[in-house]
Amino acid sequence: QVQLVESGGGLVQAGGSLRLSCAASGSIFSINAMGWYRQPPGKQRELVAIIFSSGSADYADSAKGRFTISRDNAKNTVYLQMNSLKPEDTAVYYCNADVKVGGVRGWSNYWGQGTQVTVSS
Fold it and tell me: Percent helix, strand and coil across the chain, each rounded to 5?
């Protein structure tokens, strides 16, 4: 019913920047929280940043001051601008969203397929 499609990952040198995008499509009535998570090799998935429909946002300590999350509600799209990247930022980055699907009571949670970010030293 709802698909999240990420783009913008890739290989970058330490100190560089990348911008991730995630577009939600399908039978969407509204979207509340949209977030970015990441899963480094051999580790658990962790929250990077989250933004609510109000525009308020929260960040993991590792992302504060370097990453900026934003969203375009008209396009059902969330972005993650990542600056001053470090090798430890290397991970698969996943988009997540809480969606009210048209014709369905309540909220449902969806994940994207993930996009690889690799930061070389």
Answer: 5, 60, 35
Q: Is the dihedral of CA 65, 37, 25, 82 positive or negative?
A: positive
Helix (H) or strand (E) holding 49: strand 46-51
Amino acid identity of 69?
I
pLDDT in tens, 19-48: 999 999 999 999 999 999 999 999 999 999
> Does residue 11 carry a pLDDT above 90?
yes
Distance between CA 41 and CA 106 in Å, rounded? 34
pLDDT score of 109 = 96
Measured between alpha carbons, how far is 51 from 98 in angstroms, rounded to an integer? 11
Tokens of 36: 């970015």
Q: What is the DSSP letter of 85?
A: -
